[in-house]
Structures are given as structure tokens and as C-alpha cells.
Amino acid sequence: MDLWGLLVVAAAAVAGVAAVSGGARKVQEWVYEWGLGEKRKKLPPGDLGWPILGNMAAFLRAFKSNDPDSFINSYIRRFSRVGIYKAYMFGTPTIMVTTPENCKQVLMDDEHFVPGWPKATCELVGKKSFLFIVHEEHKRLRRLTSAPINGFEALSTYIEFIEDTVVSTLEKWAGMGEIEFLTELRRLTFKIIMKIFLSSEGDSIMESLEKVYTDLNHGMRAMAINLPGFAYNRALKARKKLVAVLQGVLNERRAERAKNPHPATKDMMDRLMEAEDETGSRLSNEEIIDIMIMYLNAGHESSGHITMWATVLLQDHPEIFQKAKAEQEEIRRNKPPMQKGLTLKEFRKMEYLSKVIDETLRVVNISFVAFRQATDDVYVNGYLIPKGWRVQTWYRSVHMDPQVYPDPKDFNPSRWDDLTPKPGTFLPFGGGSRLCPGNELAKLEISVFLHHFLLGYQLARVNPTCPIRYLPHPRPMDNCLANITKISAA
């Protein structure tokens, strides 16, 4: 066969693949759109990808590369910046919203949008956690738990232990040589959250539970394939262990309460057991366990990752490091002579450090997307979101949008000077009635760590250009291998 013959065969093969591909995609659209009738013309631009797989291959390919934003950018490039696109994600037809105004509408409209997290997340976190309950049940749970988690009295109680743990841990790290900084931070934040929630400090218990939580977290956004070897299967086993441990602790607490109704010291589990609404109703065992599982996971995973990134970004930007350090030195200088540790009042004075943390949250995007489901046909930006379809609010796209944040990849805490974010433009803790209920506790943990790190330590990474893995959370592939050096008395 001559050259022209080979070209003809190759062209025919390409055309055949394209035809099959196009036909398969048309079938996928027909299956999910034919029932909409004329309304399907109001669907946003986009495509539903391949049958069964949908757009997940493109999503995973982008997030396993060094350019996770390429996934949404491909929609912007093909369909312009309309801020709303149709896709097929995590096994369901989905509408992705990517601009502040569209995210705001979805997040604020509790009447037409309810939680729509993937099956894996629902089964692993628990159906009675904040992520999944709706309407009055959700409002009741937030009322019952707001004071024990983010209240002034609770935070005032927690800050002393947080600080003592941070100080002793930094001292230990400085003598350990090379460490996986992220791994050690996750152990630190897990120790803190375990103490706050369960008064537990036993290293063996915490180490075993932390490993269980690692398996749980890796299965959160995985496909719900319950077969040996898959992340979801391991995560289900992890949840079963966690429920057994927490149920055992809860049973012991209730037995102790029967003998002593008013314990001298209380942790978060005690406070959740005591919490009651205006009718005298209290939380059930299932509610307490699901709340605990959610908070124990989020309270150490997110806090640990953000603390690592804030430390790395500060160390990488010496001028920002010095400005943040100067603020902490002033706080230390103004501390009353007889006062031992930090107070909440001093925490509130860490204005520049708060901007550093907010900028870290924006740049890093630990929670890059949230999930909802439409309870009725809804129109957003003139486009239809059909009843029953899932909706993804892409926080990452908002935070990395140059039209919202100029030079979005630049780490610039000063961008927050005299800036009050418009609704829908800053979403690290979500938005609307489902704003993360532990946001103040998380910022307190991170601030106390950075206060002491800035005053007395330095970090030197072994592999500063190490590639980043973006799923389930952005992190260096070497878990930030580094040396911590003590430079002065913190």
C-alpha cells in the first residue's frame, strides 16, 4: 500500500472513531434530556460526555496534572464565560456553576436546592451530619451545636490546650531532623481535635484512629465502587470502625452521667449530649456520632493542610513573613506580665495574620467544589437546572477567576486590605445557611500555630519544587518533606 493509501485508511479510522464517539455522546444526552421536551433548549451549554463515565475522565486527568483549572477552563474556552455548564459527574447529570453570582444564587436558595453530595460522601460522613439534613432539621442541628463548637465560652476553653500542644510539638519537631511536615501537622491537629471532642490524648488510640480517618477521607470523593481494592470499600470499613469506637464512648458517657449528671470538665461530646432545643429535645446517638465523624475529619484534615500551606507560603515570601512576624511580636510585647498564654482577645487582634490565612484559603482551595440537587426546575442566569439534577458550585473557579481576583495565582494577603468580599466571591467555608459551622475553631487552630512558628521557627523544604497532588486535597507529593529549625525562644 502506498502513502496515499495509508493516509486514506488512517483518515477512515479517525472518522470511524469520531462517529462512534459522537454517537455515544448523543445517546448519553438523549437518555437524560429527552424527557425535558422543549425545556431542554434552555439547558446551559456543555456536554454529558460518554455513557456511564460522563466527564469524569477529563476531570480526573486535569486534577492529576499540574493544572487542575484546565477542566473548567476547557468549558470557558468552548462555550464562553457564561458561568454555568452541563456535564455528567459522579454518575449523575450535573449543572456546574462557576461564577460568584451563580454560586450565590444556588447557595442562598434553600427552597430549591438541597444537599446533593455523591453517594460515597453521604454513606461515609453519615446521613445525620450537617452535609445532608435539610430545612428545619438542619436549622435545629445548627442551633444545638453552634455554642459548643464556635461559641466564645467554648473557644476560650479550647485555646489553652491548643497553644500548649502547639508549643510542645514545635519543640519536638525542631529536634527530629527531616520530617514529613504535612503528616506531622495532621497528627498535631488530630490530637487537638480529639482532645476537644473526646478528651482523648492516648497516642496509640489517636494514631490508630488517624489511620482510619485517612482511609475514610480518601473515599469521600471516590466513585462508589464497593469492591476490595477500591478506596470506597476501604472507607466503608473505616467508617464502621469509627462508629463502633464512638458508640462505645457514648455508651460509657451515658452510664457515667447516670451516676454523675454534672461532670466537672466537659468535652465536645459532653456538650453535644447536653444540648437541647426550645422544646427540650436532645440529639440522638446517630446524630451525635455523625456530627462527631464529620468534625473529627474536617477538624484535622482541613486545618492540617491549610496550616501547612500557610507556613510554606509565608516561608516562600520573606516580606510577607516579616510583616506577619512583626504583628505577632507586637502582640507578645503587649501581653500583660502575669499572663501565660494567648487569649481570644489577642487572637482577634491578629488582623494581618487573618488576611494571610484567608489568602491561603483562596489560593489553595482545600474544598474546591460543593454539591447540591435541584428540588424543582430552576433558572440560573437564564439557563434551566432541571428538577432532580445535581448542581456543583465550583469554589475553586471563583477563587482563581482573574475577573474576581486580579493575578489570582499570586499569594498576596494585602489584597484583603479594606476589602469586604461581595457575596459569592469568597467561599472557603461554603456559603448561605450551610456555612461551615467550625470555621472559627479552624482559624483559631491555624492562628495559634502560625503565631508560635513566626516567633521562633523556620521551615526548609527538602524538595521545594515537588509536584502537587490535588485529590482529595492539594498537597505536595512528598507530604512536604522538611526540616524545622528553632531560631529563638518563641
TrEMBL record:
**Per UniProt, where does heme bind?**
C436
Pathway assignment = Plant hormone biosynthesis; gibberellin biosynthesis; Hormone biosynthesis
Looking at the record's lineage, which domain of life comes first? Eukaryota
Keyword Oxidoreductase assigned to the entry: answer is: yes
**Any one biological process term the GO annotation gives:** gibberellin biosynthetic process
**What Pfam families does the record point to?**
p450 (PF00067)
Cellular compartments per GO CC: endoplasmic reticulum; membrane
GO MF annotations, alphabetized: ent-kaurenoic acid monooxygenase activity; heme binding; iron ion binding
> Signal peptide position in this chain?
1-19
Membrane topology listed for this record: Single-pass membrane protein
Q: Where in the cell is it found?
A: Membrane
Give the protein's cofactors.
heme
What's in the keyword line of the UniProt record?
A: Heme, Iron, Membrane, Metal-binding, Monooxygenase, Oxidoreductase, Signal, Transmembrane, Transmembrane helix
* Family as reported in the entry's similarity comment: Belongs to the cytochrome P450 family.
Q: What is this protein called?
A: Ent-kaurenoic acid oxidase-like
